């Protein structure tokens, strides 16, 4: 991929195990960059969900480890989230296009970087390399996909709904990708359409060839020996499990079941064209969970045109009581059995 001539920054590659992290409260390290641009974000139900602040770009040509190159410019930016910015770049050794995610090291721990790099599955976005830019910033070099599920549903699908064949691929691939996370005791905590990347068959947007889970910025591991559970608030509002939202009111422990809820919300959106719960009702779900008032909850209605087995899968994922919610093994078995049965 040809790059325009710009002033260059040469950044050395540092092995993942050698990336150092500071535990500091100094204002110099924590000070956010001066923001120059504001982008409004709109929710799937049309209300304003918030704003993204775009940082100042240097417009320089960046070289990471003498191998990976990208432009620090808004034109090269292909994604942005709470934990970093993603640029389209190039691996100069293989001449392959890559995605380069630049993140503040304050937002990730060394053991989490090792965990991210160890993930191996055809249905998880692979981290090819980790480079350190400076004392406060590191870059994840990742596989580049054609799009994400959010953009696909907005721009390609009919009324925000996936075609039957694309839904079958998505359900099967998410189940297989999450199985890999579950086997490594990883709770993702932020599964949503923006964090499902898709590659198209022959690069044609009409047919999804493979879907992969990505963005492990707030993923955490569970230690079975210590019986550890998570209890801090993390995730994206529309896909947040009730027991996570209930932590806004009191401390609740949670585990892999929170990802099952998020997957249920995502799958519902794929077949219905909208998220299953609007803002006001989500707040009620948090209250129901904080008070263990599960009887007050009604499962969301799913269009009658949806396959009955898919309805059962989605409803099993959206059980408000985590003890009755589908677990990762059950989800994998049901999803893969269904997708294989209709091929």
Automatic annotation (TrEMBL):
Biological process according to GO: autophagosome assembly; autophagy of mitochondrion; axon extension; piecemeal microautophagy of the nucleus; positive regulation of autophagy; response to starvation; reticulophagy
UniProt keyword Transmembrane helix present: no
Residues involved in ATP binding: 101
GO cellular component entries: autophagosome; cytosol; phagophore assembly site membrane
Entries under CDD domains matching the protein: STKc_PknB_like (cd14014)
GO MF, one example: ATP binding
Residues in Protein kinase domain copies: 72-343
PROSITE patterns for this protein: PROTEIN_KINASE_ATP, PROTEIN_KINASE_DOM, PROTEIN_KINASE_ST
Domain of life: Eukaryota
UniProt KW keywords: ATP-binding, Kinase, Nucleotide-binding, Serine/threonine-protein kinase, Transferase
InterPro entries: Atg1-like, Kinase-like_dom_sf, Prot_kinase_dom, Protein_kinase_ATP_BS, Ser/Thr_kinase_AS
Pfam annotation, one family: Pkinase
Signal peptide stretch: none
Matching SMART domains: S_TKc (SM00220)
Family recorded in the similarity comment: Belongs to the protein kinase superfamily.
PANTHER family found in the cross-reference section: PROTEIN KINASE DOMAIN-CONTAINING PROTEIN, SERINE/THREONINE-PROTEIN KINASE UNC-51-RELATED
Protein's name according to its UniProt entry: Protein kinase domain-containing protein
Organism: Caenorhabditis auriculariae
């Amino acid at each position: 991929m040809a790059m325009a001539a710009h002033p260059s920054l040469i950044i050395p590659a540092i092995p993942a195990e050698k990336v150092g992290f500071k535990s500091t409260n100094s204002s110099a390290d924590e000070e956010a960059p001066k923001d120059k641009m504001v982008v409004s974000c709109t929710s799937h139900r049309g209300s304003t969900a918030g704003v993204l602040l775009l940082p100042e770009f240097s417009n320089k040509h960046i070289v990471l480890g003498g191998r990976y190159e990208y432009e620090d410019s808004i034109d090269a930016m292909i994604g942005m989230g709470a934990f970093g910015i993603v640029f389209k770049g190039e691996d100069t050794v293989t001449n392959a296009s890559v995605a380069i995610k630049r993140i503040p090291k304050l937002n990730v721990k060394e053991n989490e970087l090792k965990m991210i790099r160890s993930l191996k599955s055809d249905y998880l976005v692979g981290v090819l390399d980790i480079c350190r830019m400076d004392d406060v910033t590191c870059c994840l070099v990742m596989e580049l996909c054609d799009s994400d599920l959010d953009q696909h549903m907005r721009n390609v699908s009919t009324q925000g709904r996936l075609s039957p064949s694309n839904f079958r691929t998505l359900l099967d691939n998410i189940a297989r990708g999450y199985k890999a996370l579950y086997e490594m005791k990883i709770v993702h905590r932020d599964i949503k359409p923006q964090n499902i990347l898709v590659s198209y068959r022959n690069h044609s947007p009409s047919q999804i060839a493979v879907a992969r889970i990505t963005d492990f910025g707030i993923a955490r591991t569970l230690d079975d020996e210590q019986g550890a559970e998570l209890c801090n608030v993390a995730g994206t509002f529309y896909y947040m499990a009730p027991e996570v939202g209930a932590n806004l009111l009191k401390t609740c422990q949670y585990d892999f079941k929170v990802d099952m809820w998020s997957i249920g919300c995502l799958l519902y959106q794929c077949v219905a064209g909208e998220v299953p719960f609007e803002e006001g009702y989500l707040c009620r779900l948090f209250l129901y969970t904080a008070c263990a008032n599960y009887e007050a909850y009604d499962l969301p209605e799913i269009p009658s045109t949806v396959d009955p087995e898919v309805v059962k899968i989605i409803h099993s994922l959206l059980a408000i009581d985590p003890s009755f919610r589908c677990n990762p093994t059950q989800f994998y078995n049901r999803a893969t059995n269904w997708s294989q049965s209709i091929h």
